[in-house]
Write a structure and sequence with these properties.
One of its GO terms (molecular function) is arylformamidase activity. It comes from Clostridium senegalense. The chain is an alpha/beta fold and 181 residues long. It has a single domain, classed as Glucose Oxidase, domain 1, CATH 3.50.30.50. The protein is 23% helix and 24% strand. The strands form two sheets. The chain has a seven-stranded mixed beta barrel. A hairpin with a 7-residue loop joins strand 8 and strand 9.
């Protein structure tokens, strides 16, 4: 099962906007890894993946990890249900006033577990002025944020994923393909 948005899942108005942008900006459309510090991404092509269901939780805090065993060097994905409910590119999907977000405490806890990727079915793990700040923070601590992950309703809570990406020089995002194995 693919967990990345394919071009046919992306509204024409967003693709047209992307076509008018520099190549590095267009990479932020669809499923991508944020890399604002422009580090050379070095990740395994296969990674242990775990989905944490946080639907109907507005502020995603450390308590959601209470009964979960996090594996080192893994990929943790938060399923908010927003992409499923509203669709990628809708006004509701991009409205940062109503979208859930991860607290700094939960991000720090995941970094303490040495996760490699923190994913979400939204346009970011935090929003507004905090979006780029938290992405840089995660990157400075040896991990990356993956945004706009789809099809989380079609897979189990734990699986291995195959990652495929091409990093463009100077890009602050890398489009990534995520397939379950």
């Amino acid at each position: 099962m693919n967990l990345h948005l394919k071009e046919f899942n992306i509204l024409d108005k967003i693709l047209k906007w992307g076509d008018s942008q520099p190549a590095h900006q267009r990479q932020h459309i669809g499923t991508h890894i944020d890399c604002y510090n422009l580090t050379n991404i070095e990740l395994p092509s296969e990674i242990e993946t775990q989905i944490i269901d946080v639907r109907n939780i507005e502020v995603i805090d450390i308590n959601v990890l209470d009964s979960i065993s996090i594996k080192e060097n893994s990929f943790i994905i938060f399923r908010t249900g927003y992409l499923e409910k509203y669709g990628y590119g809708s006004e509701e999907y991009f409205n940062s006033d109503t979208r859930p977000y991860l607290t700094n405490k939960i991000v720090d806890k995941l970094l303490d577990y040495n996760v490699k990727l923190i994913g979400i079915d939204l346009g970011g793990i935090q929003h507004g002025k905090d979006h780029v700040v938290i992405d840089k923070y995660v990157e400075n601590n040896g991990a990356y944020v993956v945004e706009n992950i789809c099809n989380l309703d079609k897979v189990g809570l734990e699986f291995k994923a195959n990652l495929n990406w091409i990093q463009l020089e100077g890009a602050t995002a890398i489009q990534v393909e995520i397939e379950t194995i």
